Amino acid sequence: MFHFSNIVRTKGDPKIVEGGPSLKRPVDQLARALGWFSIGLGVVELFAPRRVTETLGMEGHETMVRAFGVREIMAGIMSLSVERNAGLWARVGGDGLDAAALLSGLTADNPKKGNIALALLAVGGIALLDYRAAQDTKPRRPSRDTPRKLYPNRSGFPKGIESARNAAKQIAAHAKA
To answer: With 0-12 CB in 10 A as exposed, 13-18 as middle and 19+ as buried, what is 116?
Structure first.
């Protein structure tokens, strides 16, 4: 099977023939997928807000859609970072804002209420995924009953501080000679 990483390998490097199973947990894969989804949606909202507002029958709210796009991109970047839990919680909060904005478009004079209902359904489904991923990626702390490891007698030097001092003295003496 062809692997793209083989393209950048030099002639003497071994070629990748087969990949192993992923070390990522399913929740990490979900967080990553939600992060990329957020970035993609944010790009659409940022660069095509008129198309979004026309589809929903909410013309005149393009600035809000652009702001939501920036928020989506930032939450997506955070979801792909080391602080993915914060990014996922930002997505959960953003889902609430999206739902509130969509609900404001459910007026009697909006001919595209069906599109808004579909969008609300999609936001609700994504919100459940966001919430689940945020819950599953939260930092785990040891219980209160777990004994803490204390290291008051450690110096950071494997052979002790006296050994480090003696080595430094020998180096200094050797440098003078």
So the answer is: buried
pTM of the model: 0.69
Phi first, then psi, for residue 86 (nearest 5°) are -65, -40
User: In angstroms, how far is the first alpha carbon of the chain from the final one?
Assistant: 62
161: Cα separation from own chain's centroid: 42
Residue 106 has pLDDT above 80, yes or no: yes
Strands (E) across 14-164 are located at none
| Residue 7 neighbours by CB under 8 Å, 6+ apart | none
Closest CA to 31 of 87, 71, 69: 87
Both tokens assigned to 177: 């000679």
